[in-house]
Design a protein that fits this description.
seven-stranded mixed sheet, 8 helices, globular
């Protein structure tokens, strides 16, 4: 147990990784600490929340946050990005265009899900799309640790990115490809026929002993991911035509 991290509301996972479950939508923010640089995975749902996360991360690490990774483009995972001035932003190839073209839809969806309209407007006005686009895999050297960004989608959305961190126990930040606190949510931008295959790629990245960090909920193991993968395959009829209708879900989170 790392008391200093817990005092800030963060869970220390390994020597290099940690995460925080945010109030409201129970969205997970990831933190990867290198000797020279710091990566935040999914920086919150508003500029105000992002600013708080940045201050906490920099107090915990003693370093400036230098990199941001978006696991996908839903509001609760991207709208805090503008608070991280100067950070290099990464996402799956195509996410930049989706965020820019869908700015109004992103704002309206955030408000429908309960974000204050003023905070939603501010965050979408200042929205920072990813400048670095991952089409396959991209390695970030943070100093003492090399982090792998992997374009594992489509699945939960058309643009799903996973973050793999090696170490004494590997950590995989899964975004909403995996959810623990409820059934995975499939909105209109989900690609159900390919979602189980995206989870297979997560398992191939991490292996049997990794920590898998869902977009929402508690940290899980490979057995949980595999069971959820099988449940999604059955739910979406992937073993058949792959055209089963989606269950109603949280469309914008």
């Amino acid at each position: 147990m790392d008391v200093r991290w817990e005092e800030e509301g963060w869970e220390r996972l390994t020597r290099r990784t940690g995460r925080k479950r945010l109030p409201g939508w129970d969205c997970t923010v990831g933190l990867v600490v290198g000797d020279e640089a710091v990566l935040v995975v999914d920086p919150g749902s508003s500029v105000r929340e992002g600013a708080s996360l940045r201050a906490e991360a920099e107090r915990l690490t003693g370093r400036r946050v230098t990199h941001i990774a978006f696991t996908h483009g839903h509001f609760d995972h991207v709208l805090g990005g503008a608070a991280f001035s100067g950070a290099e932003v990464y996402g799956a190839v195509g996410l930049d265009g989706e965020l820019v073209a869908g700015r109004e839809e992103l704002r309206d969806g955030a408000v429908r899900q309960g974000l204050d309209p003023a905070l939603a407007a501010e965050a979408t006005d200042l929205l920072v799309p990813p400048r670095h686009l991952v089409s396959g895999e991209w390695t970030l050297d943070l100093g003492g640790v090399q982090v792998l960004l992997a374009n594992v989608g489509p699945g939960h959305t058309h643009y799903d990115l996973a973050v793999f961190v090696p170490g004494e126990r590997e950590t995989v930040f899964c975004g909403d490809l995996v959810e623990e606190s409820g059934e995975p949510q499939a909105g209109t931008d989900a690609v159900p026929a390919q979602w189980p295959a995206a989870m297979d790629r997560l398992l191939a990245l991490g292996g049997e002993e990794a920590l898998y960090v869902p977009g929402h909920g508690a940290v899980v193991d490979a057995a949980f991911v595999r069971a959820q993968r099988d449940a999604l395959a059955a739910r979406f009829g992937v073993s058949g035509s792959g055209t089963s209708p989606l269950s109603p879900g949280r469309p914008d989170a």
